[in-house]
Task: inverse folding
């Protein structure tokens, strides 16, 4: 008799568990059947978490304005282009540094550098000084940054997504850059039409609505030919302020 009661009790428990499991399955299938409603609500109430959890693509135009530092403080820059990126990981827990790793790149059809007009400059060589003409003016080119390694910090903000990044770029100019001492016949010498641009910076996305953000960033950029020319004067440091608009998908 006791054994029979135990069996009946066990059957009741199994039936109860089966009913609970079935209810959960129906609830899950209902959510799966209409995932858009939940996503739309999440995107509207918390656009930062929405694109983070969805590991959304980001793409959009941007404009850079910058200036040289130190002995290149009289250099100014204007760049504009299009950038794309994609998070490759979910949020990685690292305490206060928790965040998401993203890989991106950009292309800049507009690349301009504004330097002092051609002038004469005093040079020193083996203890001797001399005066020679130096090139200058506005330089035109194109550039690309094929590798942007970005870390999107985990944030509780619903509108602001901060980040920092490191990147490497390539610049081509129609004349050798930066301007250097002119050799005979007025040809710029000592530099190269190809330069490299290692850089690093910080910034943020500010979401103005779901899947749309205004972007602000500050980058420190070094420009160097890696000795492709006879000399490598380069631009040791420049500060670039970037403003963009991003679409998330």
Result:
């Amino acid at each position: 008799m006791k054994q029979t009661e135990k069996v009946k009790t066990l059957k009741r428990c199994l039936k109860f568990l089966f009913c609970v499991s079935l209810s959960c399955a129906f609830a899950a299938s209902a959510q799966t059947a209409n995932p858009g409603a939940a996503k739309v609500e999440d995107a509207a109430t918390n656009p930062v978490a929405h694109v983070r959890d969805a590991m959304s693509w980001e793409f959009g135009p941007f404009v850079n304005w910058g200036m040289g530092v130190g002995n290149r403080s009289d250099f100014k820059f204007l760049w504009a282009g299009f950038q794309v990126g994609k998070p490759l990981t979910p949020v990685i827990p690292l305490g206060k540094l928790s965040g998401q790793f993203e890989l991106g790149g950009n292309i800049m059809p507009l690349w301009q550098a504004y330097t002092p007009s051609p002038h004469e400059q005093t040079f020193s060589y083996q203890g001797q000084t001399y005066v020679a003409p130096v090139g200058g003016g506005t330089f035109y080119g194109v550039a690309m940054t094929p590798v942007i390694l970005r870390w999107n910090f985990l944030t509780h903000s619903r509108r602001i997504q901060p980040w920092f990044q490191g990147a490497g770029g390539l610049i081509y100019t129609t004349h050798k850059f930066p301007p250097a001492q002119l050799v005979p016949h007025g040809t710029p010498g000592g530099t190269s039409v190809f330069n490299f641009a290692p850089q690093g910076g910080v910034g943020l996305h500010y979401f103005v609505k779901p899947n749309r953000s205004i972007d602000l960033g500050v980058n420190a950029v070094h420009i160097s030919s890696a000795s492709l020319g006879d000399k490598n004067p380069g631009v040791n440091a420049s500060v670039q302020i970037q403003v963009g608009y991003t679409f998330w998908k």
Observations:
- The first helix runs from residue 2 to 33.
- The chain is about 20% helix and 55% strand.
